[in-house]
């Protein structure tokens, strides 16, 4: 049996123990509705499937209309978790606007961002083509490296606030501005790519489920080197989700090598009891996670971005 196979088996056997490591805390949010780009509420089937009228852990939170949602964020700080391995590849040549992908790299598996000549892996899963690593484009002050370390950006990609990700004006901090989010919405993504919405995430998870990983989509999409010495992801499809952590509104960082958070384009509407700043939507995952866990997050939090091909 291959090493990859042994790792996968160990991951499955250990999942029961890892549930004890899942995040659950006491962040509260009032009743909110996720705002779809047509001005209505999200009705994505997989998001609705994971709905509950009272949810207390990020491992099971979903986007359901008129649900009482509680934001669950990990408070773990585990020093023995290992960093993911950075894929080794030749750098692009040229200068911004005329970057050239190295001849050693297959254009079907890699592409170069013409804004800064950074090379990214790409992967086709079903009918969709995704970035196979987190975005690492310095778009401004609201995109940061974990602990302000460039080395962390090289490994994990940058962390973006929801406003920085979308590039919307500051007035949209308290107004969902759905009329401005015309799909496909590029936001901070490279040309030809866009920010994923709830329906596109639902399509990804549904494909993974149909491929034999129903109820274990997170496990199939997480990197092989996710967790203690690796082994808590199977990376069946090459998506390679990694635990890049986040930056809190107070400027502190948390959850590197513990938990990952990926922004979606969706937005929760502010309510009378919570008029600002409103909430965005993240998919978060950790070593023990199996079922995808989208949940609301304050838009000032900074999380990872994955782009999908137009």
**What does the oligomeric state look like here?**
single chain
The run of helices and strands is HEHEEEEHEHEHHEEEEEE
Distance between the termini: 39 Å
**How much helix is in the residues?**
10-25%
The backbone outline, from C-alpha atoms, is globular
The fraction of residues assigned to DSSP E strands is: 15-25%
The biggest beta sheet reads:
4 strands, antiparallel
Runs with pLDDT <50, length 5+?
1-83
| Number of strand elements | 13
**Strand order within the widest beta sheet:** 1-10-11-12
User: What is the number of independent domains?
Assistant: 1
Could you please describe the fold and organization of this structure?
- This protein is α+β, with helices and mostly antiparallel strands and 310 residues long.
- It has one domain (3-84, 99-309).
- 17% of the residues lie in helices and 17% in strands.
- A 4-stranded antiparallel sheet has the order 1-10-11-12. Strands 2-3-4 form a 3-stranded antiparallel sheet. A two-stranded antiparallel ribbon has the order 5-6.
- Strand 3 and strand 4 (128-131) form a beta hairpin.
- It starts with a helix and ends with a strand.
């Amino acid at each position: 049996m291959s090493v990859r196979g042994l790792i996968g088996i160990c991951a499955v056997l250990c999942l029961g123990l890892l549930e004890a490591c899942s995040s659950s805390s006491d962040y509260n949010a009032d009743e909110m509705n996720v705002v779809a780009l047509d001005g209505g509420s999200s009705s994505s089937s997989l998001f609705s499937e994971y709905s509950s009228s009272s949810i207390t852990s990020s491992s099971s939170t979903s986007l359901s209309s008129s649900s009482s949602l509680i934001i669950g964020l990990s408070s773990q700080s585990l020093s023995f978790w290992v960093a993911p391995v950075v894929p080794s590849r030749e750098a692009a040549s040229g200068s911004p606007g005329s970057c050239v992908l190295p001849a050693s790299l297959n254009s079907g598996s890699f592409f170069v961002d013409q804004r800064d000549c950074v090379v990214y892996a790409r992967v086709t899963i079903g009918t969709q083509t995704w970035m196979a690593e987190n975005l690492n484009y310095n778009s401004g002050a609201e995109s940061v490296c974990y602990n302000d370390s460039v080395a962390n950006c090289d490994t994990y990609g940058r962390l973006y606030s929801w406003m920085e990700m979308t590039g919307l004006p500051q007035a949209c901090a308290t107004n969902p501005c759905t009329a401005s989010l015309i799909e496909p919405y590029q936001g901070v993504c490279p040309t030809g790519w866009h920010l994923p919405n709830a329906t596109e995430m639902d399509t990804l998870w549904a494909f993974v489920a149909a491929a034999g990983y129903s109820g274990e989509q997170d496990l199939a999409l997480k990197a092989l080197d996710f967790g203690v010495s690796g082994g808590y992801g199977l990376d069946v499809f090459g998506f390679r989700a990694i635990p890049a952590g986040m930056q809190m509104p107070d400027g502190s960082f948390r959850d590197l090598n513990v938990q990952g958070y990926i922004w979606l384009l969706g937005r929760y509407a502010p309510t009378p009891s919570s008029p600002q700043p409103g909430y965005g939507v993240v998919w978060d995952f950790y070593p023990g996670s199996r079922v995808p866990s989208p949940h609301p997050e304050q838009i000032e939090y900074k999380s990872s971005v994955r782009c999908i091909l137009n």
